[in-house]
Amino acid sequence: MTVAAIVPAAGRGERLGPGQPKALRTLDGVPMFVYAVQALARAHLIELVVVAAPPGGVAEVEALLASHDLGSPVLVVAGGEQRQDSVGRALEALPPEVDVVLVHDAARPLAPSELVDAVASAVLAGHGAVVPGLAMTDTVKRVALTETGADGEGQPAEQVLETVSRSDLRCIQTPQGFDRAVLTKAHAAAEDAATDDAGLVERLGLPVVVIAGSADAFKITRPIDLLIAEAVLRERRGHGVS
């Protein structure tokens, strides 16, 4: 079976502040999406990576990728306004022989190649949808707005309704892996957006399997996450890992 990976890299990422699209923000001078593509391309089971670039940014993304060492062929297509649109366009660009598709956020640039292969292996073993996840460590509480609706400074205030058991909760990461037919069907049936591709599969009533995730596969959404990622990169290079 042939395995390919998709990287939707067209998002703006407003929480990181003004500037370039999030995927083009740099870590140690390298756009973060390049690290994500490298992790996928260097995995043993990935034979093709498709990057959905910001609209109008295909040539720029192609030039950036050409200047880095990649382990598998990479195709760049124009993404859409929403993440779902970008994944859909990348799906359409896949060769017909691709049977298994992984979808990986460009904003998780440090996910290890070992995690990529673990997800792909689980799909190849017969699971139609596979996601990596980590157990939650923070206490989780369900809340509602108070009757007054504001704290002493005029800001919205919330009241705790209950403390939620976290024993059966998982923080889900990417790459997420799918039988191509399952993912294509899920996108075709989508009537509104989901926060991840597995959510679209869940709406079909199909099972989604969770495997162990990786602490390094964290998502960069805030400026402080960039600092953490750069620290991880320094530690890796100190141990001779590129």
How would you summarize what this structure contains?
The chain is of the alpha/beta class and 242 residues long.
Architecture blueprint of SSEs:
Layout: E1 2-8, E2 26-27, E3 30-31, H1 32-41, E4 48-53, H2 58-66, E5 74-78, H3 83-93, E6 98-103, H4 113-124, E7 129-135, E8 140-145, E9 158-164, E10 170-172, E11 176-179, H5 180-189, H6 197-203, E12 209-212, H7 223-238
Parallel strand pairs: 1-4, 1-6, 4-5, 7-12
Antiparallel strand pairs: 2-3, 6-11, 7-10, 7-11, 8-9
Helix pairs in contact: 5-6
What order do the SSEs take from the amino end to the carboxyl end, as H and E? EEEHEHEHEHEEEEEHHEH
Structural class label: alpha/beta
| First-to-last CA distance | 29 Å
The major β-sheet equals: 8 strands, mixed
DSSP, total strands: 12
How many helices? The count is 7
Radius of gyration: 19 Å
Number of domains: 1
Q: Provide the β-strand percentage band.
A: 15-25%
CATH-assigned fold name: Spore Coat Polysaccharide Biosynthesis Protein SpsA, Chain A
Indicate the overall shape.
globular
Q: What's the architecture in CATH terms?
A: Alpha-Beta Complex
CATH class: Alpha Beta
Residue-averaged pLDDT = 92
**Low-pLDDT stretches:** none
